[in-house]
Structures are given as structure tokens and as C-alpha cells.
Amino acid sequence: MEFSKLLASLSASRLPAGLTGSDRRGRRSRPFYGWWIVAVCLIANLFGNTLGLFGAGVYLHVLIGTKTWPTSLVSGAITVFYVTSALLLIPVGTMIGRYGPRLVFASGAVAMASGVVGIGHAKALWEVYAAFLVAGTGWACLSTTAVATALAPWFERYQGRAISIALLGASAGGVAGVPVLLFGIENFGFEATTTAAALITLVIVLPLCWLLKRRPQDMGLLPDGAEMERAAATASKPKWSRREALRTSALRGVMLCFAIGMMMQIGFLTHQVTLLSPILGTSGTAATVSATAIAALAGRLVLARFADRINERKTACAVLVLAAASFAIMALFRAPAALAGGSVVFGLTVGNVTTLPPIIVRREFGAASFGAIFGIASCGIQLGTALGPSFYGLLHDASGGYRLPLLLAAAMDLLAGIIIAIGHRGRSHSST
């Protein structure tokens, strides 16, 4: 009940009556079903990111600490995780658009659970790679692309808010997931913890998948609870093809900017536990990682509140510059306070670097074209993202520490901020 109240307060504030299920006379009816889709996406994204995005750093730390494998080789397995996910994003978007999200999300939960069990029980390096490949399949079905595509038919005017709320699951997973994983591993062992995490994921996510519907029209509803006139106007908007969109500097700039930003971000998150542990210890590292995730949650909450009224490109530039500053702080000042403070500042940017790309693509290319265009955009972004763990791992091994990769990450984020700031908008077909 508390969760439903929180979701309702976020989704309903300052929205037209239609979004909360009221009719034209202002009489109150049941909530718009689209917000239940948001809730399911939030929970699925929570588990996907707890065991995938944030879990990868925990697995890396444990495998490096308990095996004799070099950091760069284990980091390569995590790169496989992201490459696999990236290559599946286009078919994931297509399948959700054609058949609906139910089967995709359910398959993602099964694949993620299987991959996590495999990581926990791996005895050889090739088994680690195989397990991360399976987990990458699961993450493709539960990550931002899947969530944004599942929500696309349900929201038009308030798509920014809907996506932002659904992606709060990633931050919530970081707040709760990493401490729980670290606690379980320390007290019950790596194998037992990964097995339990997989079972919990299946028990919770699989039943919720049956609540997912393909589009509001199948239930006799309209996007946002909109009136027929506005829905007809939206439907009449022309579509972009993938080839047309890729010819624009707008889409190419988004792909390049966020490929860089996500590469630096994911690389840091993957190595954060290993970076912090020698100086902060186990408890200090767990607290700092949780604080990073709390900061990410706070940043996402702010974006959720203002997502439909901001200049998305200027916001993205500011977020990337802030991330660059946090990397520079952690590279130049190795004191515990600087590492903890830099991590928290970085956390403010984490969720928004993930959430802003679908908002920008949706606004600049329109709702009707979103599934096809964002599928190819997110594939390009995640292929860049996949290089992040190896970027940090190889530079760490070559330089003997994390100062060099952090300084280069700061420079790359500044470059990404420039790219998105000077980018040109596409020929918008958006209804918003």
C-alpha cells in the first residue's frame, strides 16, 4: 500500500484528470492502467539492475579476491555481459513492439537468474564468461530499452515522467541490492547468495509479468487517458525509418555522447568496490556504494519531477560535466573523504545518464518511431558501454592503479558533454 501511494503521488501530481482515470465530468474512477505497467517495469528494473548493473561490480570483487585470474581477464567477462545485452537490444525492442512485453520480461528474469547462479558456481574462467553471457541476455530484457519500449504505447505527453519513475528501480536496486549481496556473501558464501538471489527474482518477477499488456487500446483505453481527438492527432504523425534517423546529426550525437558517458559510468560502477575496498574497508565500501545509489535515486527523483519541462540537452551536458568533476576528485585526492564524497557526487549523475537518452530520442523523433529508433540508438550506446569494464581494467593493470583511468574518464565525460550540447535536434514528430 505504501508503494502504491508513493507511485500515485509521483505520477498524479499536476497531471490532467485523464491520467488518473477521471472522466470528463471530473468523477473519480480507477487509476489509469498505464501506471501499473510503470510499477511492474520499476520492479523488474530493480532486479535486473541489482543483479546486473550493480551486481557485476560485486561479482568482479569476489572473483578477483578468491581466484588467481587477472583483473583484466575477469573484466573481459563483464564486457561480454554488456556486448551480449547491446546486440540483443534491437530484437528486444522489436519483439516488445510486435508481441508485447510479457514474454520478453519473463524470459529476462529466467536468463538473469540462470546467469547469476552460473557466476556463483563457476570453477573455470570459461564458465564465468558463459554465465555472464547468459546474464547479459537477461539484462537486455530488463534494462532501459525494454522498459522504455514497454511504456511507449501507454504515455505520450507524460512519457518523460513515466520512464523516469520506472527507472527508479535501478537506483533502488543499488541502495538495497549491493549491501544485501555483500552481506550474504560474507555470511553465507558466494554460491548460496547467488542461488538465493536467483530464486527470489523468479518468485517475484515472473508472476508480475502477467500484468503487462501490449498497449492501452487492447483494453479499450487511450494513452495517458487522453481524449480521442488528441490520440487521433498523435496517430497521424509520420514515422522515421532507422535509416533516416541515422542520417541526422541529432541521433548520431546522442549515440556517441551517451556511449562515452555510459562507458565511463559502467566501468566505474564495475570497479567501484575494488577501488574503494583497500582504503575504506568492507563496511566503508558498502556504505559508500549505498550512498552512491541513494544519490542516484535522488537525482532520478528530481528528473522524474521535472522531466517533461526541462531542456534535455542542457541537462545532459550538466550531468556529464558533474560526472567528470567527480572522477577528477577521486583521481587526484585519495583520502577516504574524497573517495566517498566523489562517489556520492558521481551518484547524482548515474540514473540520469541512463534516463535521458530515451527522453531525448522520444522528444526529437516522436512516439510513433520510438521503438525502432531507440532500439538502434541503445544498441550503439551499449556497445560503447561494454568497453567500460575493460577500459578501467586494462588501464589499472598497465598503470598499477586507478588514477589514470579516472583522469581519462573525466576527460571523456567533458567531451561527451560538448557533443550533446552542440548537437542539433531532429525534425521532430513528437506530440509533446
How would you sum up this structure, described in words?
The protein is mainly α. It has a single domain (31-217, 238-422), classed as Up-down Bundle (Growth Hormone, Chain: A). It is 78% helix and 0% strand. It is built from 18 helices and no strands. The two termini are 32 Å apart. 57% of the residues are buried.
Question: Can you tag this structure with a few keywords?
Answer:
432 residues; mainly alpha; Growth Hormone, Chain: A; globular; disordered C terminus
Q: So, the CATH homologous superfamily? A: MFS general substrate transporter like domains
The ordered string of helix (H) and strand (E) elements is: HHHHHHHHHHHHHHHHHH
Query: What percent of the residues sit in helical stretches (DSSP H or I)?
Result: over 70%
Instruction: Estimate the global geometry from the Cα principal axes.
Output: globular
| Mean pLDDT across every amino acid position | 82
Broad CATH class: Mainly Alpha
- Structural domain tally: 1
Detail the poorly predicted runs: 10-28, 231-236, 426-432
CATH topology: Growth Hormone, Chain: A
- Head-to-tail CA distance between termini: 32 Å
Which strand-content bin applies to the residues? Answer: under 5%
Largest sheet: none
Q: What is the CATH architecture descriptor?
A: Up-down Bundle
Write the layout of secondary structure elements.
Blueprint: H1 2-12, H2 34-51, H3 53-66, H4 71-99, H5 102-121, H6 125-142, H7 144-151, H8 159-166, H9 168-188, H10 190-209, H11 228-235, H12 242-246, H13 249-306, H14 312-332, H15 336-365, H16 370-385, H17 388-399, H18 403-422
Helix pairs in contact: 2-3, 2-5, 2-7, 2-8, 2-9, 2-10, 3-4, 3-9, 3-13, 4-6, 4-7, 4-16, 4-17, 5-6, 5-10, 8-13, 8-15, 9-10, 9-13, 13-15, 13-16, 13-17, 13-18, 14-15, 14-18, 15-16, 17-18
